[in-house]
Amino acid sequence: xxxxxxxxxxxxxxxxxxxxxxxxxxxxxxxxxxxxxxxxxxxxxxxxxxxxxxxxxxxxxxxxxxxxxxxxxxxxxxxxxxxxxxxxxxxxxxxxxxxxxxxxxxxxxxxxxxxxxxxxxxxxxxxxxxxxxxxxxxxxxxxxxxxxxxxxxxxxxxxxxxxxxxxxxxxxxxxxxxxxxxxxxxxxxxxxxxxxxxxxxxxxxxxxxxxxxxxxxxxxxxxxxxxxxxxxxxxxxxxxxxxxxxxxxxxxx
Amino acid sequence: xxxxxxxxxxxxxxxxxxxxxxxxxxxxxxxxxxxxxxxxxxxxxxxxxxxxxxxxxxxxxxxxxxxxxxxxxxxxxxxxxxxxxxxxxxxxxxxxxxxxxxxxxxxxxxxxxxxxxxxxxxxxxxxxxxxxxxxxxxxxxxxxxxxxxxxxxxxxxxxxxxxxxxxxxxxxxxxxxxxxxxxxxxxxxxxxxxxxxxxxxxxxxxxxxxxxxxxxxxxxxxxxxxxxxxxxxxxxxxxxxxxxxxxxxxxxxxx
Lengths: 253, 255
Hints:
By secondary structure, chain A is mainly alpha-helical.
């Protein structure tokens, strides 16, 4: 009971803070502190959101497709990289620093190059999503692999386990925690990555729509897209959390 | 029948001798304790018997067949239960069967038959972190038993438990060992535990570690908790303390 009350208050504080920010925003707009076309009032953003929702949904389809395909390839790449780096120390020493350095390259700077190489279709978008997604997952899994209980491995070996069995019974379940920690970061990266790639060209997608409304100076619609993208990211993070709970039932017992 | 036999085992690390000329044997159905202080080389000997370490000298035989340096012939259990946290108790204890190629269904059937004897009924679908320390050790012991039932080596399996749980576990261990006809070599630094559980005790002393004495505990089994406060028990305890008193290993504390 007490725990439940705590969980309600824990959620209440950020909700109150959020409402407060919107109220301040509304007051500033209503008082004419900033020009309406620069910072539309919360009400106008809400109206724009409702009005453009069908369009947003349509464009979201494209963006989500790119994000999911990219994420899937990203996970596969991350898994392969993590397994190789875990098994071969040489690869770990050689490529781990390279990977870390590669993450300092801003995605937005790489995006035009990808468009140049891969054209205006979905390919450059998916490629960018793969690039931004795979790193957190690879690192999370690698940490999981490295954190295994050596004594448990010796025990399984003594029972006659092959290295495949050690991998399946110890390494794989040990990396799930790190995998999900990485995946939570990567899903929001995936959506943002797809949107950034869409800014640079294409026919559909939330990023394409965003550039269109910006060019027509419809800033209320622009805000609506931003909020829509945030909501998608939040829902995806929540979905990963549910998947994590389902995949790791020993965690909360 | 002689199950396990170790002949003149010597092991050294960095050219200093850790254990010297240790010989021991176990007969079928016996519970034998290897008693000695921490650091005396008990666990080193244990490593040799389980085949994880190769001794400098000496040989190990299991049922007449030499197994020196061969892992996977004898099952062993450590102080840490090493239950895998992400597997249920059923998945954990049936793991040795599954690793050796049994189907999930067969392994669960075979393991399930022992849950009652091991006091684990109702824990099949629980995870290790939901169990008490005593239950976890029982689960680990069941997993050890399911791996190889000829003989089990136990390295201080109860030393992390509180004293009350420990007593309960010792009484339980004797009853299950009796029921299943287990042959066990039990490593401990606890004199009371050694007397209470054993048919025989090897007392290890010195530096390098060697077997100073072999004591037969003649008290009838099954033993009840009262045995631990009997005059007979205390007589054994005095005898062991006398042996340990003369140990050069402890000369520095002036015992």
